[in-house]
Structures are given as C-alpha cells and as structure tokens.
Design brief:
Elements: H1 7-19, H2 32-41, H3 47-60, H4 64-69, H5 72-79, H6 86-102, H7 110-113, H8 121-132, H9 141-151, H10 158-166, H11 174-187, H12 206-209, E1 227-237, E2 240-245, E3 256-257, E4 260-262, E5 272-273, E6 277-280, E7 285-294, E8 309-313, H13 314-317, H14 324-341
Parallel strand pairs: 1-7
Antiparallel strand pairs: 1-2, 1-4, 2-3, 2-8, 5-7, 6-7
Helix pairs in contact: 1-11, 2-3, 2-8, 8-11, 9-10, 9-11
Length: 343
C-alpha cells in the first residue's frame, strides 16, 4: 500500500523535478491516449527515435477515435520504421475496443487497462498512475535495474521488485514516482558505468555502499540469434512489383512485402539472382537473396497460402508500410533492373 513520502522517495522526486527531460508526452494535456501512445512506442525503442514518430502520430491520429477510424494500412504506414509492428496492430485493435466498449474513454484503473490488446502490467500501471493518479508501481527494465541496485536484490523479477517498491510509493504521487524511477535508470543508473556520484539515491543504495553495483541485477543469459536464409521473389511487371500481405501471427504480419521462400523450394524459375541483403532482428539474423523475375517467364510458385497479393507501382508502394528488410530488397531490385536495362 502507498505510504507517506519516505526520505528515499522525497530525494528522488526532488531530483526529478530539477532534472526531468522536456519530452513531448510530458507536456499538457497529458491525456490517457497520449500517455498510452508514448508508452507503447517506447517499448524496446530509444527516446530519441520515438520523439519524431510520436509528434507525427499525434498530427495524424490526435485522439483515440481518429485512430480507431483509420485503416490498418494507414496505421502501419504511420508506424513504418519503428519496428515490432505487432505493437501498431494491437494499438489499432485497442483503440477500436475503447471506442466501442468505453465510449472513447480509456479505463482509469490498471486492472481494466490490462484487458486491452497490447497492454501488459507495466504499460497498464504507467498509464493508470500518470494519467489517472492510481497508486500503482510500474516496473520496466530501467526501474528493475534501479530497484535491484538500491535494495541489492538477488532475485529482481518484476513481481518481487513491484512488492519492494510499494513500500516506497508515495500516496497520491505514483505517476511522478514511476517517471522518476524510469528517468533515473535512463540517465544515471545506467546498465554499464552508472553515474553513482550524481545519483540522488547513492547514500541509500545498498549495491553502491557495498561496492557491488556491477553485480546487480544479475546478467541475463544471452542466446545466440539463429541465422536464416531465404529467397526474396521480386516479380516485376512493367514498373510494378508483386507484393503480398504477410499473414497475421507471423514475422512482419500485416505488412506488405516481397514473398520470402525458403531455399531449396524453388524449381523451374528463370531469373537473376541479385546480391544478398541482410537484416538483423532481436530474435534472428536474416539474409535474403533477391531473385528478379519477369511475369510470364517460368512458372511462379504459390505464395504459401497468403491472402492478399497484387502488383503495386512505386507510387502505390509509397503509401504502404514496408519493413526495413523490404526497403532494402526494393533498393537492390531497382539497382538490378537499372543495370539490366542499361546493358
């Protein structure tokens, strides 16, 4: 349960008041919609990358009703380049539910917010505390690291951290407390080379006082990302390219792109194999070999049971959300076509 302001919370909040960054989502009006958009965008993405996307998003979708009324292609296009496109699809779905079930107003409690697509325990607590003042602790990676060092937690799982921080949570100021903890982790209590001399909590930090900051939190086990190779089918017809919408639930699901086919599954196709393009994801490293084909030459393979598939001109493709991988394939294909036509 929240308590009266502890000395630790008091020092943290004073520091935050003096050193908080001026970020677009911290400016008024701090609506639940704006807080939610920023929190979803900031998942696994740096602040400097998010800022321009956030500003453009609000110009395009200024409120939840405008977002719900947009097409999924419009939403994905606005998200293009941020990666983890599932976040954008779930935002669109959540916006529709907020409009249909809640009259366009976000639920005010973390428990209710957590029932919406794409909103996990951290995001629900962040929105509920910042936008609605609910006394709940929000634990993201930064908060987990700060708490682990502050309390020398050998088992810094999110639930354990949340329970420990509840003892420090100042009643009525949960939003500021959560933001202050995140800010401290982002700018001072860094994963490597933390700036302990400038930390407002150094005099209370058990890891710092015992000279063991580097041991907290325990380093996670890292798994090597598997390597995958595929053929990217680049089928051209005049100045148009054949694209398919990737199935929901798969990697890059919902986005249009060049069909990817496993090596060894192609037979009887005549084309030009272009130099490979590479793109690294968090969970795999992908090398795609663009195979340039003209429609009508050879027998084209089936597209893996995918739904929508058609030809788009370059102007039409500019309106679609393409992954960075597909942008690389397109650039390689255009270079290949230009070289071939120049012979």
């Amino acid at each position: 349960m929240p308590v009266r302001e502890s000395p630790v919370a008091a020092r943290l909040l004073r520091w935050f008041g003096a050193h908080r960054r001026d970020l677009p989502w911290r400016r008024e009006p701090r609506t639940a919609y704006r807080v939610w958009v920023s929190e979803i965008m900031l998942q696994q993405t740096q602040v400097k990358t998010v800022v321009p996307y956030y500003l453009r998003w609000l110009r395009r979708f200024p409120d939840v009703r405008r977002l719900a009324a947009a097409s999924i292609d419009e939403v994905l296009k606005a998200w293009e380049g941020l990666g983890y496109y599932r976040r954008a699809r779930q935002m669109h779905e959540a916006a529709s539910l907020v409009v249909r079930r809640h009259g366009g107003k976000f639920p005010s409690s973390a428990s209710e917010l957590g029932s919406l697509p794409g909103i996990g325990p951290y995001t629900a607590a962040a929105v509920a505390s910042i936008a609605f003042g609910e006394d709940v602790v929000a634990v993201d990676g930064n908060v987990r690291r700060v708490a682990s060092r502050l309390m020398a937690l050998g088992d810094p799982r999110r639930e354990a951290v949340r329970e420990k921080l509840e003892a420090l949570l100042p009643a009525g100021r949960a939003g500021a407390f959560n933001e202050a903890m995140m800010e401290l982790g982002a700018g001072v209590c860094l994963p490597r080379r933390p700036l302990c001399p400038t930390c407002p909590l150094s005099s209370a930090c058990r890891a710092h006082l015992s000279g063991r900051v580097g041991r907290f939190p325990p380093p996670p086990r890292r798994r090597r990302a598997p390597r995958l190779q595929a053929i990217a089918l680049v089928v051209s017809r005049g100045n148009a390219f054949f694209l398919m919408r990737r199935p929901e639930g798969e990697m890059l699901g919902g986005l249009w792109g060049f069909p990817l086919v496993r090596e060894g599954t192609l037979t009887g196709l005549e084309g030009i194999l272009l130099p490979p393009v590479r793109h690294d994801y968090t969970h795999l490293k992908l090398t795609a070999y663009p195979l340039l084909l003209r429609q009508g030459r050879g027998r084209l393979p089936r597209w893996g049971g995918a739904g929508e598939a058609k030809f788009f001109t370059r102007a039409g493709m500019a309106k679609l959300a393409l992954s960075r991988l597909d942008h690389k394939i397109l650039a390689r294909a255009c270079t290949g076509i230009g070289s071939r036509n120049g012979r």
